[in-house]
């Protein structure tokens, strides 16, 4: 497999953003749906620029109370409008700061649902196209969303996760199930190695072949910075071989 890009969800109110952004290739910046406001967006854009990271919007269902992790039932026009507003809010700040916005990655429940729900995917795709059809859409590797986006004319990046377990059908194990999140860094690094080779082990022990362009690092836990350093070192070692 070609080199994996490393991305991180940032601007969500956690204290590790500045350090993590020195270790990743792309920043997914919360833009008001589940977290973030104009001040946090501007601060994070500046940090990403200083670190040379690609900048992306990280829109969500408009649900700060649940951090965007609960499914919502919204009328399509209302959801599309909310997503446009979120993505455009970050793009405006990028324009003001002289930064280029490269991609869009949905967050939380929207990410997981839009990966397989054609209606939600259409809202997301239309929102990206409304703001800038040149933006790359980042989504779950092997999910229908990526094909739907390609068919609509968008460029895509297939994303995988270092710290989330997979089902045999390449979906993420629900956070409601035990073992869905990998807390042991050694186990997560084994999963990264599997992703680098194109084959990882599912939660039921079966092998899963999965092609990914970019690897997500969650920045919302106390060990995120140490984990980021270890993943970066692993990726750089692989690149050097």
From TrEMBL:
One of its GO terms (molecular function) is 5-oxoprolinase (ATP-hydrolyzing) activity. It comes from the Bacteria. InterPro entries: Glyco_hydro/deAcase_b/a-brl, LamB/YcsF/PxpA-like. Keywords: Hydrolase. The keyword tRNA processing does not apply. Its EC number is 3.5.2.9. SUPFAM superfamilies: Glycoside hydrolase/deacetylase. Pfam families: LamB_YcsF. This is 5-oxoprolinase subunit PxpA. The lineage of its organism: Bacteria, Pseudomonadati, Pseudomonadota, Gammaproteobacteria, Alteromonadales. The gene is pxpA.
